[in-house]
Amino acid sequence: MARSVGPSAVAQPLTRATSWAQICRTEQFRGRWVALDNVRYCPLTSKPVEADVVDVDEDLAALCQRMRDSDRHACSVHLCSAPPAAPSYPRSTRPMH
Question: What's the pTM value of the predicted model, to 2 decimals?
Answer without folding.
Answer: 0.71
